[in-house]
């Protein structure tokens, strides 16, 4: 089968499509025939060597939507089930950018029924990151949240999920994205003019760090998206970082919210598996709204 890998670090030019052996599921695992697999910034980080793994063959891709093709022992999934999953791990021999991938059963959820597999492939990593970040913030209905990078994939899900929970959301994004973030549920919009100490919490999807921390009230909460990069806590602000983890049960809840119309899935462009280097080059250009999706 074909799979997208890197064997040396660098730019989009180091991305390769290779022939490799079909993976076999062990106990409590399933094999998924991939119908769509999103390309995320973390894949660019893996490609560039941010997570290490020099000298290894590293498979790319974390998100997957497709059909269960084979099962190991001790699983409730059946061949033919349409599913989504998060295949966690920056340094792994085979990722989801492949024709088939094996994942643990507890990372798998039934795919949303209301969208196709290409759209469903944009859900797992970014929506799980958003909901797990919101869980860390521990906001209650009526409290205020500022989401930086609100037009991005994680930020957009965070806006929708927070608004669904009854939180008052201010979206920080570019002026041209004002209509988009308001459509996602933001009650107010800013390009960066925020009063210090004016919100209960910040979800920092744009990685602004200390600048965004200043906007949180004394005793509020701040969550960043990259481990070990959050600013030092000040003024009693509780500071944390989300490290996304696979969670099939939670992913099933998010898929249901897609079907209820609470969450919007955004596909920017699609590429064939053989066009993976081209997709990486497009991601590197920036300005992508939604996700690039590889379709084997």
Describe how the helices and strands are arranged.
Blueprint: E1 2-6, E2 16-19, E3 29-39, H1 41-48, E4 58-59, E5 63-71, E6 82-86, E7 100-104, E8 108-110, H2 117-120, H3 124-137, E9 144-148, H4 153-164, E10 168-172, H5 178-183, E11 188-190, E12 199-204, H6 210-213, E13 216-224, E14 238-241, H7 248-259, E15 267-272, H8 276-285, E16 291-295
Parallel strand pairs: 9-10, 9-12, 10-11, 12-13, 13-14, 15-16
Antiparallel strand pairs: 1-2, 1-4, 3-5, 3-7, 3-16, 5-6, 6-8
Strand content: 25-35%
CATH architecture type of the largest domain: Alpha-Beta Complex
CATH class of the largest domain: Alpha Beta
Biggest sheet layout: 7 strands, mixed
Please work out how many helical segments DSSP would assign: 8
Distance, first to last CA: 10 Å
Rg from C-alpha positions? 19 Å
Shape: globular
CATH-defined superfamily of the largest domain? Medium-chain alcohol dehydrogenases, catalytic domain
Helix content: 10-25%
* Secondary structure tally: strands: 16
Structural class: alpha/beta
Uncertain residue segments: none
Number of separate domains: 2
Question: Mean pLDDT, as a whole number?
Answer: 97
In CATH terms, what is the fold-level topology of the largest domain?
A: Quinone Oxidoreductase, Chain A, domain 1
Could you spell the SSE succession in H and E letters? EEEHEEEEEHHEHEHEEHEEHEHE
